[in-house]
Amino acid sequence: MRKRPLAAIFFDWDRTLAYHGNPQNSLGERLTLMFQSADLPYSQSEIEAALQQYAFDVENGNVKHINNPQTRREIVGLYSYILDYMGHEKNWELLIQLYGTYALLPTFLYENSRQTLQAVLDQGLIPGIISNHSRSARPVMEQMVGDLVPSRHIILSEELGVHKPAKTIYLRAASRISIPPEQCMLVGDNLEVDAIGAVQQGGFGRGIWLDRNGCSNGHALPTGVSCINSLSQLPTIFKQ
Description:
The chain has helices spanning 27-37, 44-59, 72-85, 92-101, 113-122, 137-145, 157-160, 167-176, 191-200, 234-238, and strands spanning 8-11, 18-20, 107-109, 126-131, 154-156, 184-188, 206-210, 225-228. The protein is of the alpha/beta class.
């Protein structure tokens, strides 16, 4: 049976189309900016010390290891541990405030992001965004790329209550633009969550792993998954 043609390309947001502050910032540096934005006046050294204590407790089996958190609960769980180590009283309201603060940090587009989105439009394809992000990210996205990606095509995990790589978010995204999943592609910097998840969970026709380190995982990629090291390479993929 002939493969159906590509009709839509979704992108992850953070570290795919955009980045917060310096993309080389450590977790401690990012958390320091977030905590200070939420009026929690902790220094980077204090936060780094809390992270070191968390790593020690994980290694010794004292706390749960939250590896590569994606869901809101996982992310605020990590924030909860950090606050505990610094002796700060916490509640759910504060944790949710911190969850929404990340999207409000200074945000910048990668130099070829808008050019890539324009190339998608020029090919007659539908652009969209699927992001494990808070509601507070929507105004930022709409301000930065709203002229290229319609608001309805921006899919945020907190708004739907489901996160990548659960298949529901991919299916809801395809339904939102009235395109069958097999005619959709997702481009993202997380191999498992974006590229593989979209294909194996969501039934997308293609998944593209954006590895700016040079496609360095060293393993064969699953069927339907490809790797690029720059968004500028994407047009050669979707024209195939």
